Amino acid sequence: MTSRRDLLQALAMGGAGLLAGVSSGARAQHEGHDMSGMDMGDMKKPMPPAAGLVPPKALQRHPQGYLPVRTLNGWTLPYKLNGGVKEFHLVAEEIEHEFAPGCRAKCWGYNGTTPGPTIEAVDGDRVRIFVTNRLGEYTTVHWHGIDLPNGYDGVGGLNQPHIKPGETYVYEFTLKQHGTHMYHPHADEMTQMAFGMMGLFIIHPREVEDVPIDRDYAFLLHNWALHPGTYRPDPSVMQDFDLWTFNSKVFPAIDHLVARTGERIRIRIGNLSMWNHPIHLHSNPFWVTGSDGGRWPRAQWRREVTEIVGVGQMRDFEFEATEPGDWALHCHMAHHTMNAMGHGIPNPAGVDQSGVQDDIRKHLPGYMAMGRYGMSEHGEHLKMGVPGPVNTLPMMAGDGQFGPIEMGGMFTVVKVRNDLAAGDYRDPGWYQFPKGTVARRVSADPDFGSPPRRHPYGSTSPAPVMQPEMPAMDHSKHGG
Ligand SMILES: [Cu+2]
């Protein structure tokens, strides 16, 4: 699938303008500017704007020496060099956003997306950031965790006048640190963040890092009260959210993280949601190596398999890709890997609803009682063509090569392969398991399925059967 970033790069090469990713409003602000100093980043390689696959890009470092981050489902904001100052332009505006195919909403963001584009710069850079407000109410931008003069800290009323609709403000400061940071409004914060206004601000160290990184991924955690059947997030909700996102996307629409064995991967995670998220990476333990405080001294690195990224915090994970495969990366709060949670619904677990279903069907043809044996049916019934509420995703979704993955929300896959080129981020497909390396059935109880477990609405849940071809165990190889 062509990502937005790939598309932008293709557009840029096709002459559609380096600001192809900037909204119409922002583009108007830039017209007439000299773009010759614009950082091209990894846009230098020509690529055809063909539909479908975009050819791999060679691993390209920025002229200042850093490896650009890979913002999941996102993009990096181009800048213009003006007298040695890096000039960026953010435009706050309402946008139409897709969480995954089948679910869209009116959200607020920057330059056409939520999260807004990632700002990347280097310790020591002077940055000048224009902020244009195209919302219906005032806003500001706070540069979260960045050491700067007080008048640029962005708390409306405290540090600056609010940016009214139609106004453009400028922030200017010199970066005195490195690390993983964020930006977000500090005006009507509850609403503006609930609608999606946030972005990453990555400051690379001046020196090349002594433990070098081969792929550098980044995303923000967020939650949304987009109630089933609606098109606007509800900003008043504090706990019972419907959607849990990595960079405003839910599984299965979240980009995969691709890695080659032998590479060192960094995953930078920031949290602007209303919950703490224990982020869990399958495969081997990772090191927690940094935050908005920069890359920590090595004595502070910790090995973990799950790390809580608290509200307002940033955490950098690093690991060496040693085992090829498809490894899950997800929040360990089980409700945060579901979509479209239905809150306040009676609990049907263990309840035979077949009689109730018939009664309800008299009033609601096609009604399906669900949940007696668990919630797996929920994803299945939508696949069978039974409509749910409009603009509402199934609670769990996504099919892998062995069947339904039954995840949603904050879940994606780290795909480690032996045979990738450096800088190739294309989805390599599902992992091809070497023969004999997958968990397999060795027996099944023929009586367990009696009476057969059937979904109340008649869909068959196949009764387990004894496998006649059950492999004989070879005990001689197990040394006792
Ligand atoms: Cu979570």
Question: What does this protein structure show overall?
Answer:
The chain is mainly beta and 480 residues long. It has a domain at 4-334: Immunoglobulin-like (Sandwich), CATH 2.60.40. It is built from 5 helices and 24 strands. Strands 1, 11, 12, 14, 16, 17, 18 and 20 form an 8-stranded mixed sheet that branches. Strands 2, 3, 4, 6 and 8 form a 5-stranded mixed sheet that branches. It has a 5-stranded mixed sheet with strand order 13-24-21-15-19, with no helix packed on it. Strand 16 (286-291) and strand 17 (294-295) form a beta hairpin. The longest helix has 10 residues, at 4-13. It is globular. Mean pLDDT is 82; it is low at 1-56, 454-472 and 475-480. It binds copper (II) ion. The site of copper (II) ion has 7 residues, from loops. Keywords: Copper, Metal-binding, Oxidoreductase, Signal. Residues 98-207, 238-343 form the Plastocyanin-like domain.
Chain-wise SSE layout:
Blueprint: H1 4-13, H2 24-30, E1 70-71, E2 80-82, E3 85-100, E4 103-110, E5 119-122, E6 126-133, E7 142-144, E8 168-174, E9 179-184, H3 189-194, E10 199-204, E11 215-224, E12 243-246, E13 257-260, E14 264-271, E15 277-281, E16 286-291, E17 294-295, E18 302-304, E19 306-309, E20 314-320, E21 325-331, H4 354-363, H5 376-383, E22 397-400, E23 403-407, E24 411-417
Parallel strand pairs: 1-11, 3-6, 5-10, 11-14, 13-24
Antiparallel strand pairs: 2-3, 3-4, 6-8, 7-9, 9-10, 11-12, 14-20, 15-19, 15-21, 16-17, 16-18, 16-20, 21-24, 22-23
